[in-house]
User: Which sequence fits this backbone?
């Protein structure tokens, strides 16, 4: 599964152009999704140039390496891209219609294929649910 993740307001608090404080559990959850679910993470940010480099380095210092940055794959050059939108199975962004759920909720939705409502209820069985939706088809 490929997941595009926004930076400002999603991984860190809004402080653009500075880098805000990490949002609780963001780094932990993203690293777990990489390890446990073998997700390819793409940093998908409005940042460019030095500001983008600083964000990537901040993530690296917090133990998070991305598959690609503002691109569909690591080797993709900016000239090759038709648009800034990257192709992903899932997008995690604070500008989502319903806002950014807690990172624990995001983890349950991706790892166990739960709906938002199920993840919000937070049952402790941690057993993957049988789903007919997108997440079930991807795992």
Assistant:
């Amino acid at each position: 599964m490929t997941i595009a993740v926004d930076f400002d307001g999603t991984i860190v608090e809004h402080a653009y152009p500075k880098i805000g404080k990490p949002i609780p559990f963001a780094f932990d959850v993203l690293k777990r999704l990489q390890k446990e679910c073998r997700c390819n993470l793409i940093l998908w940010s409005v940042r460019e140039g030095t500001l983008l480099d600083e964000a990537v380095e901040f993530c690296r210092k917090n133990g998070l390496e991305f598959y690609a940055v503002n691109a569909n794959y690591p080797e993709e050059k900016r000239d090759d891209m038709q648009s800034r939108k990257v192709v992903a199975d899932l997008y995690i962004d604070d500008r989502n219609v319903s806002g950014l759920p807690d990172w624990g909720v995001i983890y349950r939705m991706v790892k166990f294929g739960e709906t938002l409502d199920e993840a919000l209820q937070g049952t402790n069985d941690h057993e993957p649910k049988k789903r007919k939706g997108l997440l079930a088809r991807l795992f």
User: Anything to note?
Assistant: The chain has a mean pLDDT of 86.
